[in-house]
Amino acid sequence: MNQATALIIDDEPDIRELLEITLSRMGINVRAAANITDGKSLLKNQHFDLCLTDMNLPDGDGIELVEYIQKNYPQTPVAMITAHGNMEAAISALKAGAYDFVSKPVDLNDLRSLVDTALRLSDAKPTANKSLTLLGNSAVMKTTRATIDKLARSQAPVYINGESGTGKELAARLIHDNGARSEAPFIAVNCGAIPSELMESEFFGHKKGSFTGAHNDNPGLFQSANGGTLFLDEVADLPLAMQVKLLRAIQEKAVRAVGASEEISINVRILSATHKNLARLVENGLFRQDLFYRINVIELAMPSLRDRQDDITELAAHLLSQLANAHQLETPEIQGDAIQALQRYSFPGNVRELENILERAMTLCENSEIHVHDLNLPQAIPEETHDDLDSKLDSTEKASILKALEQTGRNKTQAAKLLGISFNALRYRLRKLEIH
Asked: Which of 67, 212, 226, 348 stands 20 to 30 A from 54 (CA)?
């Protein structure tokens, strides 16, 4: 393995010397420059695995250099050295494409961690899990995949915005799996599913005996994700009191477990998502502006299915194949009339709704062919949610199956024939709909 080489650009000799000594002791070759002009000259003549640059330089600012390296040497991650407490400058650097930042006075442990993670980028391999992929050849999906690849090469907090069912958690997982933290944990948490009285303990951990029921030490989500990624799904559902504590943990890169006397340093990348309009919640005082500013360094918008209707044919074929394999059934063919109907449908529940529609159609279709009537698409659902739709369709199907069972004296084989489906398909629907 070739020895890594780093470029340091800082006009303060003491800082340059400290960085040179620290990186040299890590076995890294170091070249240094005191200004942007000399730094660009070194970049032109040599490949660097990492660049550390000060924000304020004699002949320009570090943001300009970040943008220059992003454009001309995109494979070289850049970390910004900022003044202590200048979070605005750090966020500006991340938005410009900086990999990460470190504040003065430089904490050597933080610096070593940053450098280690940055150097792993060159070794990061795309995920081997072929099921983790965003399908579709529409222009908007090509752009989305390219953006995810770019975000995987950063440590910036990412806010993933999109309607329910658009694949926000999948996007977060891909950012993690294709980045330098891929070997470390990916911890996903639904913020709306944790009771408010347990939130602090769940996020930051607790010590044994710190409250009634605390029979053992619990590390908490931040410690469990240490070195990796913490994905905060439905972040808009966090109570305001918890938002304050979360903001502090993110800014200080440290957490204190309930009942503990000392804080513990953590190294976690934060990805967050919600289907709600977070900016509007900020305007209405329901979400803290400072936390929104901190987690929304870069925003990734996940397109709705109605904005990528050209992808429906490919998505339908893929989903039907997966469903058939999962339930050991023959993969049905989806016919042209069904595809055309799907392409006209608005899909308020997006890809998740498409999967549910196809799952129902697969169990009810005849001769392994899905036609438009097998889809049972609603004509109009202006006020209904995706969950409302699923509930109504399941209720209708359950009633049909119960009626068939009643007519055949609970004979499943005869009921399946009456419904026009296979025995295995009926057995699957009985389990799915909890009909005993």
From this structure: 226
